[in-house]
């Protein structure tokens, strides 16, 4: 691909070094020319038109657009957007035409508002007016470089006679080939590798500021500790963003949760505990949050200046330019309002306020900003249509002339330096990348960077990425401690999705309203169990007030009446439960259970000391690998209070069997019973769930039955086959008239003998289908004890129906609603295997598993498909 050759900076300098004055529209070119001047002289050789005027008025303050805007908003009634819009149009007209004559007619907008803006321009000393009034003296030996770049206002300072230097020659230059990369990382990596070899002062990178390459390039440069020139702007200040966020939060602080202000609080030098993130800022008792709340509340009673002064006393360091800007905008002494904050944000979006500039290292260049770069090696990244400059239609603008100017600037830009490297991508995110349309003048209908001849026009590059230093990974050599026990929640997660378990342990979760509500019920139940007389003596209203107060920091005020109702209903149910159940209060030895050290809200409020011996009891059993906390330890019975929906005994048994559960595992009852049978061996045990909010309607009506809120599972210290020899099986089967026709003539002893002869597998009674397959066998056994036929003990039809009912209903229910010795034995084996897997995964990687990922807690952190 060929292009009109432009003169190099060296060639330009050699041509113009003998002139008194050189003018160019390019500040970068003027600097490059002046850097080559060796002989002493008064003033510089090269200037831009604006800089020439600044030199003439060097001791005077010439307002530019930003300062003029500040004057307009201070002396007119225009809102800030109107002021910025009209001022921008006026300056654009002035620069394009070189005069303000005819502007009101050309703009054709509100004459009163326009008159206000023009009045400020006419009565303020500004760079644009001084340029219009100035002419370079005719006696100056003047040379103008690149006249095509000059605007009408630039040309207005030129004398009638001067020399011109056309930067384009009649010769053509063959451009270097495009270097095509597969990814942004590869492209930037190649750039970094070359800069590392060449040195920062010898290189420049032309990169669009909004491209994916720009942040990636800066990140890699910092990682490699390669300096690069950068202009820091006030609007990019993290401290300023923090202040604006803080002020905005202050205007709506009544509805803010701590999680919304956590990042701001931390930047001020304090922290918010993770568990409190769901609490409302106005209601929390967190000391750090209260200090922050004191800082932002009632912002309308404070001025911007007061807030800046206060923030500068914290760890947040605000730039000095912020104070200057606020005073220039007359906001320093203004009260903080939403409108004032929005105006400040608009100003910062519209005008650049520089805070710091560096002149060392790699030069980063915006492709639309300059045409000349004074570096030996130039990297051009991207070169897509994002490099095309947008031209707004204006009555006073010659669009064709503007397009030609931009095209010529592009042609000059891509020829800079002794060596040019064009680094591009042909596609991104599976979409083709279109080259800048400026290339079409050089090669019509260019639609892809790989159009043309391979080798001459483009080169394909493969690369693994930048060879930057790796992060320190010495901590990986540490050997993880062996996990010897696991809780019911950890076990449930690990079986459902090991990767979900990993993230849950890695990421601390905040307290949620439903967690706290559950804790309130748990703590009240414990308090009632330990101090029943005190609870009975206490007014219910006070108890409810305490419960609601506990929830206020974490829920919206509109939710409190509903919560109060739920607490009132739960209170009735818990009182009924404790009134109907004798609590043994048996204290087990400390090797079996020990007291929890958790705080009890009600004990604290009533100034009572809890001597825990049967409530909130913790166990840790390394023999079987289990740990947990029991809400109520009542002899052979373990009780757990729940606020969620009720599950049946058969659902719980099913969900504790890895081969059977569908929605999600639930190992709590099985895990706790496995430990409790070690404490009380060879005994029948019970695990009870009390669902305090399962059927609120019946509690409201007052006709509720306690058993409807209870789900109990019994553990039998026998195998299921051994259990079938016990009398309670016979009694359970007698509950049906159909079964009685068989059981009464058969009798208890013969029935149990018949059951003992059944040949079945352990899982056969988990379903009706499998249980029914034993009917023929059971009928044959029963015939050994009975005469079957019309007029005898029972008919064949009655035997068939009764046998089916016993197998598919009685035995299946007994099997699926209780735990037997083989269940817990098998579970302990499963627990051993899971702990072995867990410790192995801790050394390598936690797998995702094959269960439904929609049910896991950390779904957004877990990759599905091939990426997992």
Brief write-up:
The protein has 868 residues and is an alpha/beta fold.
What is the structural class?
A: alpha/beta
What strand line-up does the widest sheet have? 9-12-8-13-14-7-17
Please, how many domains? 6
**Distance between the first and last residues' Cα:** 45 Å
Stretches where pLDDT is under 50 for at least 5 consecutive residues are: none
Strand segment tally: 24
Radius of gyration: 41 Å
**DSSP strand (E) fraction?**
5-15%
> Based on CA inertia axes, which overall geometry fits?
elongated
Question: What this model shows, in words?
Answer:
With 868 residues, the protein is an alpha/beta fold. It has six domains: 95 residues, no CATH class; 60 residues; 158 residues, Rossmann fold; 124 residues, no CATH class; 199 residues, no CATH class; 95 residues. Helices cover 44% and strands 12% of the residues. Strands 9-12-8-13-14-7-17 form a seven-stranded parallel sheet, covered by helices on one side. It has a seven-stranded mixed sheet with strand order 18-19-20-21-22-23-24, with helices on both faces. Helix 4 packs across helix 5 and helix 19 crosses helix 20. The longest helix has 23 residues. The chain starts with a strand and ends in a 25-residue tail after the last helix. The model has no long low-confidence stretch (mean pLDDT 88).
């Amino acid at each position: 691909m060929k292009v009109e050759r432009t003169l190099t900076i060296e060639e330009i300098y050699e041509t113009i070094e003998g002139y008194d004055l050189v003018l160019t529209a390019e500040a970068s070119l003027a600097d490059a020319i002046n850097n080559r001047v060796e002989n002493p002289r008064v003033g510089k050789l090269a200037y831009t038109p604006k800089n020439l005027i600044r030199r003439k008025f060097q001791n005077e303050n010439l307002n530019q657009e930003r300062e003029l805007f500040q004057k307009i908003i201070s002396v007119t009634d225009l809102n800030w957007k109107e002021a910025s819009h009209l001022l921008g149009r006026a300056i654009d007209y002035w620069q394009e035409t070189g005069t303000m004559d005819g502007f009101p007619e050309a703009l054709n907008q509100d004459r009163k508002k326009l008159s206000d803006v023009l009045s400020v321009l006419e009565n303020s000393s500004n760079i644009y007016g001084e340029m219009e009034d100035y002419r370079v003296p005719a006696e100056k030996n003047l040379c103008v470089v690149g006249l095509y770049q000059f605007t009408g206002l630039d040309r207005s300072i030129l004398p009638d006679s001067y020399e011109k230097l056309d930067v384009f020659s009649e010769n053509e230059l063959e451009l270097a080939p495009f270097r095509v990369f597969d990814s942004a990382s590869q492209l930037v990596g190649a750039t970094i590798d070359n800069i590392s070899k060449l040195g920062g002062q010898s290189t420049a990178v032309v990169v669009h500021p909004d491209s994916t390459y720009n942040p990636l390039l800066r990140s890699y440069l910092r990682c490699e500790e390669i300096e690069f020139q950068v202009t820091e702007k006030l609007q990019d200040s993290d401290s300023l963003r923090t202040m604006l966020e803080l002020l905005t939060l202050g205007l709506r602080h009544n509805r803010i949760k701590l999680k919304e202000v956590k990042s701001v609080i931390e930047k001020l030098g304090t922290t918010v505990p993770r568990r409190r993130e769901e609490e409302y800022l106005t209601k929390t008792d967190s000391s750090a949050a209260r200090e922050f709340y004191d800082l932002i509340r009632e912002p309308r009673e404070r001025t911007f200046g007061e807030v800046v002064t206060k923030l500068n006393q914290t760890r947040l360091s605000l730039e000095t330019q912020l104070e200057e800007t606020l005073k220039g905008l007359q906001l320093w002494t203004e009260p903080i309002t939403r409108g004032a904050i929005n105006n400040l944000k608009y100003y910062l979006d519209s005008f650049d306020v520089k805070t710091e500039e560096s002149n060392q290292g790699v030069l980063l260049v915006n492709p639309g900003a300059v045409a000349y770069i004074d570096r030996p090696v130039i990297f051009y990244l991207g070169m897509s249509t994002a490099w095309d400059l947008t031209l707004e239609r204006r009555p006073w603008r010659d669009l064709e002339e503007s397009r030609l100017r931009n095209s010529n600037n592009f042609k000059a830009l891509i020829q800079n330096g002794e060596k040019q490297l064009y680094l591009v991508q042909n596609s991104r995110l599976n979409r083709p990348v279109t080259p800048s349309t400026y290339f079409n003048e050089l090669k019509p209908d260019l639609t892809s960077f790989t159009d043309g001849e391979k080798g001459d026009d483009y080169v394909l590059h493969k690369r693994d990425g930048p060879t930057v230093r790796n992060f320190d990974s010495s901590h990986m050599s540490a050997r993880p401690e062996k996990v010897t026990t696991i809780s019911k929640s950890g076990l449930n997660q690990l079986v459902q999705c090991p990767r979900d378990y990993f993230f849950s342990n890695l990421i601390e979760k905040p307290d949620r309203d439903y967690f706290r509500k559950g804790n309130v019920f748990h703590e009240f139940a414990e308090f009632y169990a330990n101090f029943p007389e005190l609870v009975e003596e206490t007014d219910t209203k006070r108890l409810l007030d305490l419960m609601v107060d506990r929830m206020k920091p974490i829920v919206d005020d509109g939710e409190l009446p509903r919560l109060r109702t739920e607490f009132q209903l739960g209170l009735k149910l818990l009182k009924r439960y404790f009134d109907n159940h004798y609590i043994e209060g048996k204290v087990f030895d400390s090797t079996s259970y020990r007291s929890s050290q958790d705080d009890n809200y009600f004990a604290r409020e009533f100034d009572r000391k809890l001597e825990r011996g049967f409530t909130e009891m913790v166990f840790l059993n390394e023999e079987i690998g289990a740990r947990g906390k029991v809400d109520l330890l009542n002899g052979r019975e373990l009780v757990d209070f729940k606020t969620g929906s009720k599950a049946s005994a058969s659902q719980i048994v099913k969900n504790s069997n890895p081969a059977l559960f569908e929605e999600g595992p639930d190992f709590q009852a099985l895990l706790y019973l496995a430990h409790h049978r070690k404490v009380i061996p060879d005994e029948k045990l019970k695990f009870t769930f009390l669902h305090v909010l399962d059927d609120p309607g019946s509690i409201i009506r007052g006709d509720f039955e306690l058993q409807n809120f209870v789900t109990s599972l019994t553990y039998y210290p026998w195998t299921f086959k051994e259990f079938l020899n016990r009398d309670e099986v016979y009694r359970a089967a007698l509950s049906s008239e159909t079964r009685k026709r068989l059981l009464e003539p058969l009798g208890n002893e013969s029935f149990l003998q018949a059951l003992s002869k059944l040949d079945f597998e352990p899982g056969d009674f988990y379903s009706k289908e499998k249980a029914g397959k034993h009917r023929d066998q059971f009928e044959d056994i029963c015939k050994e004890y009975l005469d079957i036929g019309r007029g005898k003990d029972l008919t064949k039809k009655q035997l068939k129906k009764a046998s089916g009912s016993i197998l598919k209903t009685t035995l299946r229910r007994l099997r699926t609603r209780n735990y037997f010795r083989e269940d817990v034995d098998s579970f302990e084996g499963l627990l051993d295997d899971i702990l072995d897997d867990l410790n192995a995964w801790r050394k390598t990687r936690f797998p995702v598993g094959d269960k439904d990922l929609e049910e896991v807690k950390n779904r957004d952190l877990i990759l599905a498909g091939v990426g997992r």
